[in-house]
User: Which sequence fits this backbone?
């Protein structure tokens, strides 16, 4: 067998194996995306209602629990929680959110910024740089883990209420749809008060006690929603990336098969010409 044909066949076999892998990864990402979408779309309206209720109670209690709504002037620096993925093969998902975080850090030039990193990719990027990393949470692997989320929000709340950070920001990817995901920087603490008309509630024991329990609960729900946004965006980005890789493999495979047929046809033509030349030579 001619060497070029053998090389082409080896490349075809390699591309076919790659296409099988990327196709399987695409199917897995689609299944994970569907599960995350269900959780996300169920939690979004709940979190919105909870937010509205919190602001209504805050307006009704006339400034109680002000520590959650006011920035402490003497507190030290800003805390930024950055959410990235633990693994790759998800297109520009990590690049976009890291770029947004870098732009945020540039705007905060001259101020002390502390990082809390969720995801191995963010840790790999900022590790060894001249910025303080308070803690990192790797190994989440885009899986819904309320215990881990509660641990992170607990640390962020302690930094703010303890005066170690005058404000807390979240850097995550908002899931718009399967094609569009937006890198987002959002302030978590202090909470932004809203001008709402105080509503009349009948509560037991009293509004202040209810608000004292509601705000920490709201922060937990908000953190879970943010992680769901990021994880859903990650699975969507990986689905698109694997689909693109599978389509590219199909296109490359078609070209290689066509090239193999051309080389084979050229070899057959060459053999026929040599045989005809030999017959003519014998006749002569």
Assistant:
């Amino acid at each position: 067998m001619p060497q070029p044909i053998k090389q082409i066949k080896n490349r075809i076999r390699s591309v076919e194996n790659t296409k099988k892998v990327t196709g399987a990864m695409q199917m897995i990402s689609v299944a994970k995306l569907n599960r995350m979408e269900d959780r996300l779309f169920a939690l979004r309206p709940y979190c919105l209602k909870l937010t509205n209720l919190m602001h209504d109670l805050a307006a009704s209690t006339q400034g109680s629990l002000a520590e959650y709504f006011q920035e402490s002037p003497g507190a030290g620096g800003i805390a930024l929680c950055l959410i990235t993925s633990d693994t790759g093969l998800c297109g520009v998902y990590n690049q976009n959110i890291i770029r947004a975080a870098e732009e945020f850090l540039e705007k905060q030039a001259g101020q002390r910024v502390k990082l809390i990193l969720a995801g191995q990719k963010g840790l790999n990027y900022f590790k060894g740089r001249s910025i303080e990393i308070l803690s990192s949470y790797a190994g989440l692997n885009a899986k819904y883990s309320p215990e881990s989320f509660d641990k992170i929000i607990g640390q962020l709340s302690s930094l703010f209420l303890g005066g170690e950070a005058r404000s807390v920001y979240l850097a995550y990817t908002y899931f718009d749809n399967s094609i569009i995901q937006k890198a987002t920087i959002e302030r978590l603490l202090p909470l932004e008060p809203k001008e709402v008309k105080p509503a009349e509630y009948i509560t037991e024991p009293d509004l202040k006690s209810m608000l004292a329990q509601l705000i920490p609960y709201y922060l937990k729900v908000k953190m879970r929603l943010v992680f769901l946004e990021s994880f859903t965006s990650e699975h969507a980005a990986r689905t698109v990336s694997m689909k693109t890789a599978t389509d590219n493999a199909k296109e490359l495979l078609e070209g290689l098969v066509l090239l193999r047929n051309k080389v084979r046809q050229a070899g057959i033509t060459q053999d026929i010409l040599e045989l005809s030349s030999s017959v003519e030579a014998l006749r002569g």
The chain has five helices and five strands.
